[in-house]
Amino acid sequence: MRISATLLTIIAAIATLTATAATQQPTVGVTPTPNNLTYAEETTSLDITAGLQLYISCDSSDTERLVRAVERTGIATKRVKRPARNGYLNLIIRENSTASDEAYEMTVTEQGVEIVAPTAAGLFYGVQTLEQLNNNGCIAACHISDAPRLKYRGILIDISRHFRTAEFLKRQIDIMAQLKMNRLHLHLTDAAGWRLEIESYPRLTSYAAWRTPATWKEWWYGERAHVNEGDAGAYGGYLTKAEARDLVAYAADRYITIIPEIEMPGHSDEVLAAYPELKCSHQPERQGDLCIGKEATFEMMQSILDEVMEIFPSEYIHIGGDEAGKQEWAKCEDCQRRIKEEGLNGVDELQSYMIHRIEEYLNSHNRQIIGWDEILQGGLAPNATVMSWRGEEGGITAANMGHDVIMSPHGYCYIDAPQDAPCTEPESIGGYLPLERVYSYDPAPKSLDESVRRHIIGVQANLWAEFIPTDEHYEYMLWPRAMAVAEIGWTHPEMKDYASFRERAIAIVDNMLERGYHPFDLKNEKGNRPESLQPISHLAVGKSVTYNAPSRYYAPKYAAAGDATLTDGLRGTWTYADNRWQGFLGRGGVDVTIDMGEVTEIHSVAADFMQICGPGVFMPCRVIISVSTDGVEYTTLTTIDHEVVVDELPSFKSFGWEGVAEARYIRYNAHRSKFSGFLFVDEIVVQ
Ligand code: ACM
Ligand code: ZN
After folding, report:
1. With bands split at pLDDT 50, 70 and 90, how would you rate the model's confidence at 41?
2. 389 CB less than 6 Å from ligand 1?
3. N or C: fewer beta carbons within 10 Å in the chain?
4. Which has the closest alpha carbon to 448: 496, 485, 400?
5. Considering the domain boundaries, does residue 300 fall inside one?
6. 553 pLDDT more than 90
7. What share of the chain has pLDDT > 90, as a percent?
8. 552 located within any domain
9. Residue 19 reports pLDDT greater than 50
10. Is the link from the previous residue into 213 a cis peptide, with omega within 30 of 0?
11. How far apart, in Å, are the Cα atoms of 315 and each of 310, 363, 367, 370?
12. Which pairing describes strands 235-236 and 257-264: parallel, antiparallel, or unpaired?
């Protein structure tokens, strides 16, 4: 190829190259960590301050997308028709043998940058990496050969519980793209509001999209009423078809697919509020599950899905399938007739009948379904992809059956839980899910058989919005935890390093703050409950504990370390789901006796309790601590009365005694309050 003299002059002008880079490596690094990055042995780099000559070789629609992507990096470029020799940025499609369509190879030398990939998506990811390597106009010479670990790297945004606008969603898409995430799952429908214009069923948006009062909590614990659009106090909203299409295009411009979720048959209260004739009974009571006996239900769902498919080109349509109550079906003539006619064995198979039928409908339109792991109940639809949320078991079962799976277990991926000390975080659904725990998740661990692992195609962070009424709060919950999911999905476990990730996440958070986002300010993280960080040594560690009637045992789900829990020297974290707190649901509350083995002089006995009203965890209303030397005659050391009041934020409180006593047996008895619910206690500390 001949290069004209004019072009050479331009090159000389725009590409000032240097062999003495200020720093060899980028200051912060790339997120998600590339799977293979080697810096050149010599300290060389490319100076891009004067811009680069951009050559792109791929289809025209992708070319335009890539030009826009390069523009967004802030690196000045000039388009050229042929690859330049110096000061170049070449983006080239080239088939290769890598397993992933999203792979890319990038070579940075003093002369320029070449990114080669089998698809435009791979080139796009190379451009994201390039942007992050840019260290004040200087890019260290390196070679990167990178590909995602998992092909589905997603976030669920719940715009039903509190509606969020397309503008808000676009701002999150911008960050997702930089992090090489590629699926935005929109939870568009749920009891609290329907959020997508559907022309064939207009009351879904003129009525089911609006409610009073505004906060989900007041609405849920109140009348759960929907109102008409425009009524006084009507709170809600929805995406018009035009807005949804524009959003789809915006995401596609960043190689992100929007997966719409249309919930069925459960979580459909708002549909039945708008179209009560589709309830099992014609009674005024609320109903959450669609009637599967009525053909009109299928006519409605198929008609809705026709409009959904017309807006969303995604291969996957999420059909929900979770948490159907199924009670009404047992009493409904239509549902019972369906069960009989189809030879179904009960309500689980009735749900499965619906999911099969909807899958068939969508498959006939070249779409695939994703459903929550409850779609396994009653028989999995033949081509369904399962999103595993109640843990990983559902996903593993489905993968064993040869189905694809997206892992989103609540213990790692439900970022609606607080990310820092819950007593100082905004009110939330409860629990504690710090960044480090999200990051520690491996969706496809080596302990699983390869035949199962190959079906685990993705990982997703889910942000449910019951307690998240504003954009600011939403961003706060989303970032930086969704960054951890981006890295889990992209980077192989052997390349992961939490310390490095945290440092990079802080830098991204700082940058987001500068750009007007509202992420959680990671550098100020308080961390886990201090008491839980070290084992505690005290006189009762390892001593045996008897659980007295009538409480007679902790709840099996919250057994922690069983009978050893209350004297194992381990204090609980911020969450009762950590296998350290022991949960008691029985009438008798906590009623245990520690056997010290021999008569011992003691100076204090104390135990901590937690209160989180949302999930029904309360402080005790009375604690009685008594001691005995023979196990027969007991002396009460203290009786503590406590007024239990409902509050918004979690709290932790110690109930104890101090003094001097001789004891072989120590009885600790905590009474449940009028709110009943759970009592959670982590350790009975005897000094
Ligand atoms: C879910 O959290 N019910 C999917
Ligand atoms: Zn019915």
Report:
1. confident
2. yes
3. N
4. 400
5. yes
6. no
7. 90
8. yes
9. no
10. yes
11. 12, 10, 5, 10
12. unpaired
- State the Rg of the chain over Cα: 29
CB atoms within 10 A of CB 515: 10
Cα 17 to chain centroid, rounded: 44
| 373 a catalytic residue | no
**Does 359 share its domain with 231?**
yes
Beta bridge partners of 53: 78, 88
| Ranges of H-type helices in 380-497 | 393-400, 410-413, 435-440, 450-453, 471-478, 481-490
Structural tokens at position 365: 């339109």
Mean pLDDT across the chain: 94
What is the CATH classification number for the domain harbouring 88?
A: 3.30.379.10
Looking at the 3D structure of the chain, how many domains does it have?
3
Residues 511 and 568 in one domain: no
The answer to whether position 632 is within a domain reads yes
Of 146, 173, 198, which residue constitutes the final position of a domain?
146
Please tell me which residue in 323, 471, 525, 595 is annotated as part of the active site: 323
Least confident of 238-252, 253-267, 298-312, 609-623: 609-623
Cis upstream peptide for 480 (omega within 30°)? yes
Q: Which two tokens stand for residue 670?
A: 């905590």
Is-contact 288 269, C-beta < 8 A?
Answer: yes
d(CA 437, CA 443): 13
pLDDT tens digits along 119-132: 999 999 999 999 99
Strand partners, 264: 320
In the block, tokens 């935005």 appear at 184
Q: Which ligand has the nearest atom to the CA of 261?
A: 1
pLDDT at 315 over 70: yes
Q: In this predicted structure, what is the pLDDT of residue 60?
A: 84
Average confidence (pLDDT) over 435-450 = 98
Ligand 1 pocket, residue 323 CB under 6 Å: yes
**What tokens were used for 455?**
């079906």
Residue 90 and residue 140 in one domain: yes
User: Ligand 1 center to residue 459 CA distance, Å?
Assistant: 15
CATH code of 206's domain:
3.20.20.80
- Same domain? For 612 and 520 the reply is no
| Residue 194, both tokens | 């329907």
From the CA of 569, how far away is ligand 1's center (Å)? Answer: 35
Task: Indicate which ligand has the atom closest to the C-alpha of 267.
Answer: 1
**Is residue 316 within 8 Å of residue 259, measured between CB atoms?**
yes
Q: Are residues 175 and 134 located together in one domain of the fold? A: no
459-506 pLDDT per residue, tens: 999 999 999 999 999 999 999 999 999 999 999 999 999 999 999 999
The residue from 505, 524, 543 where one domain ends is 524
Range of the domain at 275: 152-524
**Helix (H), strand (E) at residue 671:** strand 651-671
> How far is 450 from 332, CA to CA, in rounded Å?
45
The whole-number average pLDDT for the span 253-280 is: 97
Mutational test site, ligand 1, from 259, 388, 389, 407, max ligand atoms within 8 Å of CB: 389
Do 573 and 604 sit in the same domain of this protein? yes
3 assigned to some structural domain:
no
**190 is known as an active-site residue:** yes
310 is catalytic: no
Cα angle, residue 680 at apex, residues 675 and 682 outer, rounded to 5°: 160
Provide the token pair at 440: 């520690």
Pick the residue whose CA is nearest to atom 2 on ligand 1.
389
Number of other CB atoms surrounding residue 250 within 10 Å: 17
* Same structural domain, 277 and 184: yes
Band of residue 444 on the pLDDT scale cut at 50, 70, 90:
very high
Residues 69 and 168 in one domain: no
**What is the DSSP secondary-structure string of 363-401?**
HTTT-EEEEEGGGGTT---TT-EEEE-S-SHHHHHHHHT
Name the H helices within 16-75: 60-72
Q: pLDDT band for position 94 (50/70/90)?
A: very high
What is the predicted pLDDT for the residue at 251?
98
